[in-house]
Design a protein that fits this description.
single chain, five-stranded antiparallel beta sheet, four-stranded antiparallel beta sheet, 14 strands, 54% helix, elongated, disordered C terminus
Length: 500
């Protein structure tokens, strides 16, 4: 081994310059390798921490889904239930399609006002209406409640054209039925803006007790003005106003003074159920047609919650099999991202439902979630395919990993923002077949983008930090030039080891 020859000769300026430049230009492989290891170690720790947070988030989402499952509106096509069959009719010509559609909307509103979740209403042919509801102990009572026309009218008793009915009302008789051609209402329920149920009276003794309820209605400005004018005129003679519901006089109070507040209490010895029924009718509006209740049918669930979970597990398993065959360990990451997508979407929907959002968990929404899980898998496969093509084209594993991770940040962020906002807007805007699938799909897309950032990106960073170089076959890059070529560790860009 050659030794450095020492000399006592004085060094010239050129010698000193050469010595200085040689020392500064000489690379220190050990130092560069150390810096590369530190960078790799930081990448590994960050990726592992992200995956750990993804696991925690998945557990929280599943816990929320299970904890708030009762708040979800499970559709009868998933849970089963009963079908109430109605036939629509009216005097003269049969109901038009517009009237049938309006009647279906009114029935949907009444189901919501009755606190029934998961119900649906469909028009069947020219005159049929099918109301699907979860199983109830008394479907006939429910049919009677929602099937009432709910037509509220205010009529001057002195203008009723039936002398016998007028005499009964003046004598204080209640529940007097009126023919439609013997009176004309001066005000109807279309001017009611708000309805509330309150206790009207209560009396008790040692042997009996009774309680009646009233419905307090508030008119819009036009209705309040009309009611004030009529009551001012009737107050001069203590005239009566008949409050008519579906052609039956519920009460006919005398007017002693002008009522100009726009609020009227309708009392008629209502039971609580009767008062709530009238309130429901006023809240949802009057049916444009008459309904006849025909029968109730049992509905068998098309899918069921258990089968839905099995189908979801089968979809994730399929993604895992296809992914592992195509991308090895990265394919497993695609399956984990798909599972996280489903868990996050399920948990978010349960929380939103618990917060009062209107969302139907039906076959349509399940289809939307399934599509979002499939999109998550497809996006993961596209990301990993881009990474592998770059490596096989000669790009270093680390550079290909960095490029692939950088390419998904912006699109995923945009998908999370847009999908989340659209889902929240739709989920509080109402529920139906279209809304259900749109809500599930938009929320699923946002969750799929988040799963990509939480699962797929950390896996790619682990691959770029040295794991794929150590085991190229395991990471699906076997035979790639950058996986088999010798390492050059002069600049620290491609560390020779994982660092951990």
């Amino acid at each position: 081994m050659a030794k450095k020859v020492e000399t006592d000769a004085p060094k010239t300026g050129v010698d000193r310059w050469r010595e200085a430049t040689h020392t500064e230009a000489t690379p220190n492989p050990k130092s560069d390798r150390s810096r590369g290891k530190k960078r790799a170690s930081a990448a590994v720790r960050g990726s592992r921490a992200t995956l750990a947070w993804a696991a925690v988030l998945c557990a929280v989402a599943v816990a929320c889904g299970i904890g708030f499952f009762g708040s979800l509106s499970i559709g009868v096509d998933v849970s089963g239930g009963q079908q109430l069959v109605f036939t629509a009719w009216q005097e003269g010509d049969g109901p038009s399609q517009d009237e049938m559609s309006e009647a279906a909307d009114v029935l949907r509103s009444r189901l919501v006002s009755q606190g029934i979740s998961g119900g649906s209403v469909k028009v069947d042919g020219d005159t049929g209406l099918l109301v699907n509801v979860p199983a109830t102990d008394d479907p006939d009572a429910l049919a009677s409640t929602i099937g009432e026309t709910g037509k509220l009218e205010f009529v001057r008793v002195d203008e009723i054209g039936d002398a016998e009915a007028m005499a009964k009302l003046q004598n204080g008789t209640e529940d007097v039925e009126l023919e439609s051609d013997v009176y004309t209402a001066f005000l109807d329920g279309s001017h009611v803006t708000k309805a509330q149920v309150q206790l009207a009276s209560s009396s008790s003794s040692s042997s009996s007790s009774s309680t009646s309820y009233a419905v307090v209605v508030t008119f819009d400005s036009e209705g309040a003005e009309t009611f004030a004018e009529v009551t001012k005129e009737l107050a001069e003679t203590s005239g009566q106003i008949a409050i008519v519901v579906d052609g039956v006089v519920k009460s006919a109070p005398s007017v002693s003074s002008e009522i100009d507040g726009g609020t009227v209490s309708i009392s008629g010895n209502f039971t609580l159920d009767e008062a709530l029924q009238l309130k429901s009718s006023l809240d949802s509006g009057t049916l444009p047609v008459n309904l006849t209740y025909e029968e109730v049918r049992d509905l068998v669930p098309v899918l069921g919650v258990r089968r839905a979970l099995i189908a979801f597990g089968a979809l994730v398993a399929l993604v895992a099999v296809v992914g592992i065959v195509a991308f090895r360990l990265l394919g497993l990451a695609a399956a984990l991202a798909s599972a996280l997508t489903g868990a996050l979407a399920f948990g978010c929907l349960a929380v939103l439902s618990a917060a009062g959002a209107s969302f139907g968990f039906t076959l349509f929404s399940l289809a939307g979630l399934g599509i979002s899980v499939a999109l998550s898998a497809g996006g993961s496969f596209a990301l990993f395919g881009s990474f592998r093509r770059a490596v096989r084209s000669g790009t270093s594993i680390r550079s290909a990993s960095v490029a692939a991770c950088s390419s998904v940040g912006g699109p995923c962020g945009a998908a999370i923002a847009v999908g989340g906002v659209v889902a929240v807007v739709l989920v509080f805007a109402g529920a139906g077949d279209f809304q259900s699938i749109a809500i599930a799909l938009s929320l699923g897309v946002a969750c799929a983008a988040g799963s990509t950032l939480l699962v797929c990106v950390p896996f790619l960073r682990l691959a770029g930090a040295g794991a794929a170089k150590k085991s190229p076959a395991l990471w699906g890059v076997a035979g790639a030039p950058s996986a088999s070529a010798p390492s050059i560790s002069g600049d620290g860009d491609e560390p020779a080891e994982d660092g951990e």
